[in-house]
Amino acid sequence: MRENYTLTRIYLEASLAEGRTLALSNDHAHYLRNVLRLSEGTELRVFNGSDGEWRAVISSLGKRAGDIEIQEQLRAPEACPDIWLCFAPVRKHRNAFILEKATELGVAKLQPVTTARTQFSKLRLEKMQSQIIEAAEQTERLDIPLLNATIGLDQMLADWPTERTLIFADEAGDAKPALVALQNLTGPTALLIGPEGGFTPQERERLRGQDYVIPVSLGPRILRADTAALSLLTLFQATQGDWG
Ligand code: SAH
User: Fold this and answer.
1) Residue 44 and residue 21: Cα distance in Å, rounded?
2) What is the pLDDT of residues 94-138, one digit of tens each?
3) Domains of the chain, CATH where assigned
4) What is the pLDDT of residue 64?
5) Separation of 223 CA from ligand 1 center, angstroms?
6) Would you say the C-alpha torsion 198, 204, 207, 211 has a positive or negative sign?
7) Residue of 55, 56, 46, 54 lying closest to 9 (CA atoms)
8) Which of ligand 1's atoms lies nearest the C-alpha of 173?
9) Candidate of 101, 171, 179, 204 to mutate for ligand 1, largest count of ligand atoms within 8 Å of Cβ
10) pLDDT digit string, tens, across residues 3-13
11) pTM > 0.85
12) What's the CA gap between 193 and 170, in Å, rounded?
């Protein structure tokens, strides 16, 4: 069982080494002092996405500022499986759900992709980034998923690294079951989920025409995009990812 998991955990963009004193951001100082009611001398855990997880102690803590001292490494760096989730942005709270669940489920990269029927393409990257970091802090991840800027489907396919298989969640219904397709996968993989309005016939034809694309079915019912993203990621982690 993981130790120290009751200690508060925060993500810092700073290199972590024994004895280093790091200044807390205003937000972190506010969170630790005013939300969690912590004080000087309290221990916590910090991670930065690449140096593993370290024990630290609050050495000073004011209303909007503070310092922590890095003590010892508790967990060595570890990365999640190399799986990407490409998804057409959906309405705000469902987008936040996709980001949070994908982070918890161990996605390595998130690629928002606009398609013909995407209605919500104005995404605030820094808001999405903070949602991802919050999910990573809570889910005990040691790395942070990469969040790419939104691109169009045509652009994404034009620049696609063809050694990476693209599992295309195709709601048209005539694709092979996702579990069957995922069993025989080799090499790097990405998943593609469409928008609330689904893919157009032209997009479906364009995708199916690529030899690195495997269309898959997620069963006889039409799932919401956020449900489909979570379901397909779950199947991936259980068959090819790190749930083994
Ligand atoms: N409203 C659309 C469905 C969109 S669902 C329609 O009725 O056609 C949003 C996305 O979730 C789809 O583009 C697809 O990527 C995925 N999805 C939903 N249900 C699915 C299923 N049963 N099989 C495969 N993909 C599915």
Assistant:
1) 14
2) 999 999 999 999 999 999 999 999 988 788 999 999 999 999 999
3) 9-75 (2.40.240.20), 83-239 (3.40.1280.10)
4) 87
5) 6
6) positive
7) 46
8) 23
9) 171
10) 677 899 999 99
11) yes
12) 8
